[in-house]
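Running this now, will post back.
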Amino acid sequence: MARGYGQYCPLSLAVEVLGGRWTILVVSRLIDGCRRFNDIHRGVPRMSATLLAQRLAELEHAGILVRQPLPDGRGHEYLLTEAGRELEPLIMDLAVWGQRWARDMTTDDLDPGFLVWSMHQRLNTKAMPPGRTVIEFEFTGAPSDLRRFWLVNTEGVVEMCLKHPGFEVDLRVMADLRRFVEAWRGFRSLREEIGAGAIRLEGPSELRRALPDWLQLSALAPYPRCRPGAEQDLAVGTA
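Update: finished.
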C-alpha cells in the first residue's frame, strides 16, 4: 500500500489506494473482464506474480474487489465491487489522456506479450470465418523468447497462446514490433502498412484481405496524438 500523505483531501486518500506501482493497471485488467489470477497476470506480463498477489490483497482490503471461491472449488476469482466499478470512467479518461499527452514510447515500453493480450480482446470475431481460425504473430525487434504468439478464435471465443496451440496456422503476421505497436495505437495506418509490405502476411488471399476487418485497433487509437514528437508526426502523416 502506498504511504499516506497526511492529507484529509479526498484526492490524496484516493492516491493512497491507487498510487502504488501497477495498481491502476491491475484494476484496469479487472475492468477488462479478467477474473482469475492467471488471466489478470497475462494482462500485466511484466509484473511478478508475488507483487500481483500483494496488490490484489490491497485492493480487497480497500474494498475495490472481492475474492471468492470458484463454483467448482478450484481456485478463486476476483470481482470488482461498486467502488471498483466506479473507477472505470476515471481510468478510461486517464488512458485517453495518456494516448494524447504522455511521453513517446521507448524500446523498453514495447511489450509484445501485452500487445498480443490486448489484441485478443479486440478481435471482431463476427467478421471471422465460422469454426476455428489460428493467427500466428512473429515480431522482429522483440527478445528471442518473446517473438511468436498465437491467437485462436473458436466460434467467437479467443484464446491467446504463448506456445504453438497444436492447430494448423491459417494466417501468419510478421512485422517489426515497434511498427506494429504504432499501427495498433493508430499512429500508422494498418492497411497501408500491410499494403506497403511493412506488415507481412502469409496465408490465403481472402484471409490476408480480411485481417484489417478482424483486428480492431486499440480502443484508444481514435484519439488524436497531441504531444509534439515523433508519434504525433507519424499520426499527422496518416491523417
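Strands lie at 65-69, 76-80, 132-140, 148-154, 157-161, 171-176, 200-202. More later if anyone needs it.
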